Amino acid sequence: MTEVRVPTLGESVTEATVATWFKKPGDRVEADEMLCELETDKVTVEVPAPAAGVLTEIVAAEGETVGVDALLANISASGEAAAPAPKAAAPAAAPAAAAASVDVMVPTLGESVTEATVSTWFKKVGDTVAQDEMLCELETDKVSVEVPAPAAGVLTEILFAEGTTVEAGGKLGVIASGEGAAAAAPAAAPAAAAPAAASGAKDVEHAPAAKKAMAEAGLTAAQVQGTGRDGRIMKEDVAAAAAAVAAAAKAAPAPAAAPRAPVAADDASREERVKMTRLRQTIARRLKDAQNNAAMLTTYNEVDMTGVMELRNEYKDLFEKKHGVRLGFMSFFTKACCHALKEVPEVNAEIDGTDIVYKNYVHMGIAAGTPQGLVVPVIRDADQKSFAEIEKEINEKGKRARDGKLSMAEMQGGSFTISNGGVYGSLMSSPILNPPQSGILGMHKIQDRPMVVNGQIVIRPMMYLALSYDHRIVDGKGAVTFLVRVKEALEDPRRLLMDL
User: Fold this and answer.
1) Which of 2, 207, 310, 446 could be stapled to 75 by a disulfide with Cβ–Cβ 3.0 to 4.6 Å?
2) Model confidence over 274-323: pLDDT tens digits?
3) The pLDDT of residue 96 is above 50
4) Alpha-carbon span 430 to 445, nearest angstrom
């Protein structure tokens, strides 16, 4: 018998709530197959099977609170499973139809992400699907998530239409698999609306994190409008209700946003109104928050790229032959920034209340434009990596960013960001901070310009650099010093090798 226990939940987190069981007693499980999902007030934690066998017992049911290392369930080896398995499986065998129902569940969306929007269904009710064939696509405020079919059969039920919001671990649809799948489909299709019709008559179990948030805010369920399935209250709903209560308590409520100016009828007929994606809404909110919450200032300089370009041209073929990746400019800028951050650590810090948190590491965010919007994959411990390691990671994460395949974990924890508007032809711009970071470097287009060098006018490949910083923590002297150190390192790349 193998025990399934609560894993480590993170620093200072001592308990969690069992949110969803993906298996039931009697089900066969494989090693590392997902058994259940736990929810804390900070993250969602998946619990994989520690061994293959049969799930014989679930000790902690959905909705129960469990501590670290608490017993969740028991798994027996295949030989031991013969006796208990039929006991749990007997009720499922009652229907006359030979088809087995397989639930299509919302996959794990990433750390701190509790819900997503159904973007596109690639199949409709009654369609035959193959195992692992793509059923639908979900959109969070960071990434797009594809949902494959967990089994072959017929899609008999779609619970959430395109444009609706679903929660992590929730049920999206049902697939009838087995010999009776085709016969089950017509009967199941008309019943697809039944759960919605009956939803008002049953009790709704609100999200555990929402219950805790309501207790902390002093709110009751009657004061919160749930946006989850069947009116389930989510943590975000509690935050919205608390904000509404606070706003109502103010003597002078904040003015509403100015409405759009009237549009002539002939112009309106030629306009197209498209709802902002969750990613675009998040980008808009975060950028505006950065302007509102930080004392943002930008300082500029320019760098002669001759030294970097000559070094790159001399070694790019050997570099690619040895490391299997092209030598670009981003590794030089990443290394130059890491070098400058050591001298000016406040640019690599953040404000937490009345404290300044200095980072003794560099997790470098590299802003990347994608068809869905701007994302910032993070190169962790960039200060400890070689040019080749940095180029490989930028190349790999950049490709997955464009394909919408980045995980939430890969876009979190950055301590400084580099944004390269030069790839789009930008000559000069002021980048906006990526909160809670205190600095972001803007790269721009390399352009030949006449420069005075040793009393002579010569043509040099020049680039404008811009450092936007939070003036609450970074003084002008520190910002200018940082930018000068980046300039010096790029104009003489040998300084990076000598740590000068």
Assistant:
1) 2
2) 877 766 777 777 778 777 878 899 999 999 999 999 999 999 999 999 99
3) no
4) 14
Helices (H), 294-378: 306-323, 330-343
Query: Alpha helices of 163-250 — where are they, by DSSP H?
Result: 181-188, 194-198, 208-217, 235-249
> What is the sign, positive or negative, of the torsion defined by CA atoms of 421, 424, 427, 429?
negative
| pLDDT for the residue numbered 164 | 84
Where are any strands of DSSP class E within 321-455?
349-352, 355-358, 364-366, 368-370, 373-375, 378-379, 416-420, 439-443, 447-453
pLDDT tens track for 157-194: 898 888 888 888 888 899 988 665 655 554 444 434 44
Distance linking the first and last C-alpha atoms of the chain: 60
Strands in 276-398 per DSSP E = 296-304, 349-352, 355-358, 364-366, 368-370, 373-375, 378-379
Listed residues 94, 120, 145: the one ending a domain: 94
Residue 340 DSSP SS3: helix
pLDDT > 60? residue 130: yes
Q: What is the CA radius of gyration of the chain?
A: 28
Q: Of 37, 23, 31, which Cα lies nearest the Cα of 78? A: 31
Residue with token string 């749990």: 88
Q: Could you tell me if 366 and 384 lie in one domain?
A: yes
pLDDT computed for residue 208 by the predictor: 63
In a domain, 199, yes or no: no
Is 275 part of any domain? no
CA–CA dist 153, 158 (Å, integer): 14
Q: Is residue 221 part of a domain?
A: no
C-beta atoms surrounding 439 within 10 Å: 30
Q: Tell me how crowded residue 54 is: count the other CB atoms within 10 A of its CB.
A: 23
Q: What CATH number corresponds to the domain at position 142?
A: 2.40.50.100
Asked if residue 399 is part of any domain, the answer here is yes
Structural domain containing residue 423: 280-498
- Using a cut of 0.90, tell me whether the model's pTM lies above it: no
234 & 173 share domain: yes
